[in-house]
What we know:
Layout: E1 3-8, H1 11-23, E2 28-33, E3 55-60, H2 68-79, E4 87-88, E5 93-94, E6 99-100, E7 105-106, E8 111-112, E9 117-118, E10 123-124, E11 129-130, E12 135-136, E13 141-142, E14 147-148, E15 153-154, E16 159-160, E17 165-166, E18 171-172, E19 177-178, E20 183-184, E21 192-194, E22 202-203
Parallel strand pairs: 1-2, 1-3, 4-7, 5-8, 6-9, 7-10, 8-11, 9-12, 10-13, 11-14, 12-15, 13-16, 14-17, 15-18, 16-19, 17-20, 19-21
Antiparallel strand pairs: 21-22
Amino acid sequence: MDCKWIIGGSxxxxxxxxxxxxxxxxxxxxxxxxxxxxxxxFDLEVLTTLSPSEGSAFVAFDERFGNIKRIELMAAVMERxxxxxxxxxxxxxxxxxxxxxxxxFIGDGAIVGHxxxxxYNSVLLPGAQVGxxxxxxxxxxxxxGVTVGNGAQVxxxxxxxxxxxxxxxxxIGRNCELGWPQRYGDHVAAGTVFDPxxxxxxxxxx
Length: 206
């Protein structure tokens, strides 16, 4: 039986491992937790004990560090020859014409509308919703209760928190965090953070 190695850390590692195990009983699904040093670099030594010819991998790490660590780990796993696949939960609703990139995760109960695009390494947790013709660029993170309207665009490495509602046709720049549980009706510049601790958005990048 082929193996599916779920590689990474954080609570998302447990969630992804359980999701793959339930969805693919035909595979031997194993969880590989990686340690991190004081600089938050991953200890990749365990990967030398795995053979890419004996299975495939899925990289699971949460949104900390602006979704950067997950994509760093994805690159390291691919460099070692492991094949990566997206995960689409058996109880997710994915319409026709949807494109889903490598190592993307669409959890059970998530909804993706017709002709939308979910780029590589992006995560739609259970209950997130993306309308028709929308584009979610690489390495984004959508919490449960997020709604993205038809034709909206979300920039790479962005995080949308529970209760964020993105209006149809809206453009969210890269490296944004929509942390206010509200309807966003204006385009959002790259690097803008809506932190619930503050009354005004913060521009974090030039």
